[in-house]
Design a protein that fits this description.
- This protein has seven helices and eleven strands.
- It is an alpha/beta fold.
- The strands form two sheets. Strands 3-2-1-4-5-11-10 form a seven-stranded mixed β-sheet, sandwiched between helices. The chain has a four-stranded antiparallel β-sheet with strand order 6-7-9-8, with helices on one face.
- A hairpin with a 2-residue loop joins strand 8 and strand 9.
- The chain is globular and about 50 Å long.
- The termini are far apart.
Length: about 250
């Protein structure tokens, strides 16, 4: 299995401790306010569908997908963590949304096309293998309807590396990949030995220009963009993009 499958352990811990959403592990909100404002801005654009079928990749407990349901969409959430999916179902009772355990790098989008809106609320940066990333973006483009929109929210460079080291002690940042130390490789296929220690690639943080190029390679045309550069509180840049199929 890939490193991102390790999210299951974190969601199991969250469930035991009563934490309702990923961001609420260390923040007061379930959804980053800047991400929510960007999504609201996307929905106001004349080229954005006013409803229809939406899918969130790496939905977690699905606070963003529930927001889309409130905006007139019917949705489906996909996540590799079965515990996250169980929590999402519990928190979404009565809404026009369904959930399934699946891997968006391994064909999980195919059955849900065509999509009016596809949302990545911080999933892509958990996928570090270049081939997996290309496949995920290509499958996203193929799953969109002719007028469909893809919304991407992701980490990117530039990075304040000194601040990142303070925020993530013991981790290494090399060649756009953040590596976390691991004592037992278990079934992970992407564990590496560096500096005589074992590490897993946990975040891919490429330059924002490389992300734009990757979208264009997948046949996606950016329509709206927000770039937030590093701060003292958050040493990693973030990029929000709304894109449509080219042509």
């Amino acid at each position: 299995m890939k490193a991102y499958h390790g999210h299951e352990r974190e969601y199991a811990r969250m469930r035991r401790e009563g934490v309702q959403a990923w961001d609420q592990r260390d923040r007061p909100h379930a959804v980053d306010p800047d991400d929510l404002r960007f999504l609201e801005d996307v929905l106001r654009q004349p080229w954005c569908p006013r409803g229809g079928r939406a899918l969130e990749m790496g939905c977690g407990t699905a606070p963003l997908l529930r927001f889309l349901c409130g905006a007139g969409f019917e949705g489906v959430g996909v996540d590799v963590s079965g515990t996250a999916i169980e929590m999402a179902r519990e928190q979404s009772a009565g809404l026009p949304v369904s959930f399934e355990t699946g891997d968006v790098c391994r064909g999980a989008l195919d059955a849900h096309a065509p999509l009016d809106l596809c949302l990545d609320g911080h999933c892509l940066h958990c996928v570090c293998d270049p081939g997996d990333r290309r496949r995920m973006l290509a499958d996203t483009a193929a799953a969109l309807s002719a007028d469909g929109v893809f919304v991407l929210m992701t980490m990117c460079s530039p990075v304040n590396e000194a601040g990142l080291s303070r925020m993530s002690p013991g981790q290494l940042f090399r060649d756009d990949i953040l590596y976390a130390p691991v004592s037992d490789p278990g079934d992970y296929e992407d564990v590496l030995t560096m500096d005589d220690n074992l590490y897993l690639p946990v975040r891919c943080i490429p330059p924002w220009q490389a992300l734009l190029a990757a979208l264009e390679e997948a046949g996606l045309e950016p329509r709206l963009l927000r770039l937030a550069l590093p701060t003292e509180e958050d040493p990693v840049s973030s990029l929000n993009i709304a894109a449509s199929r080219r042509g």
